[in-house]
Write a structure and sequence with these properties.
Oligomer: single chain
Distance between the termini: 78 Å
Structural class: mainly alpha
Number of domains: 1
Radius of gyration: 19 Å
Largest sheet: 3 strands, antiparallel
CATH class: Alpha Beta
Strand order of the largest sheet: 2-1-3
CATH topology: minor pseudopilin epsh fold
Bound molecules: fe (ii) ion
Helix content: 40-55%
Number of strands: 3
CATH architecture: 3-Layer(bab) Sandwich
Strand content: 5-15%
Number of helices: 11
Amino acid sequence: MRNAVLSLFLLFNAVFVVVAQPFTLPKLPFAYQDYAPYIDAQTMEIHLTKHHQAYVNSLNKAIIRSLFDPLTIEEVLLNKEALSSDAIRNNAGGHYNHSLFWEILAPKAKQGAISAELSKEIKTSFGNLDSLKKELNKAAMSRFGSGWAWLILTPDMKLAVVSTANQDNPLMPLEAQRGIPIAGIDVWEHAYYLNYQNRRADYLSAVWELLNWQVISEKYQQAKENTSLMGRLVPLKKKKKK
Ligand SMILES: [Fe+2]
């Protein structure tokens, strides 16, 4: 009897923990100081443990009061009804966007090479990596206020550069051009102000030094293979033949 009561107690607590804390802060793949001199250790620490943590905490608070609790982060981002709540929209975006950002950054010595497939696709879509860099930086520089610049794979399986405001992202059914993010650059001032103040262009140059093209290539491959997620995005209208 005592064991049964104990089991019920443990089961209740396990369920409560799962329901009450559906989203958690990811760990950085490297130490804060490993991203220097491109991004300083203090910025990395504050960005992760204060800003990203706040998105996770607020998302968990918002979602626990809603019907969207059992959903994965992608399911939340795809759900128009869930996104009608500003708290869910901003914090689900904040959690997803930052989680991707941490994954694609690495110190020079730990960076891997771009895959032949992604390299070929960049050549097809942009001409070369330098042209992609110019286009992504242009999207990042022209984003007024806070937001993100993205490299995405669209439903017609093409690479594209887009920008979103605040913590929105291209999976959301609120964006004109949707796709699965392959890489994202955070252009909120909290990402760079300590080191670069208002010099967003200098920060962007620094971020390019930290991009881990091996991970971005893996993201590209995963997006190509994720037909169920891609099928949930509205296909782009085909260009009319002249
Ligand atoms: Fe950020």
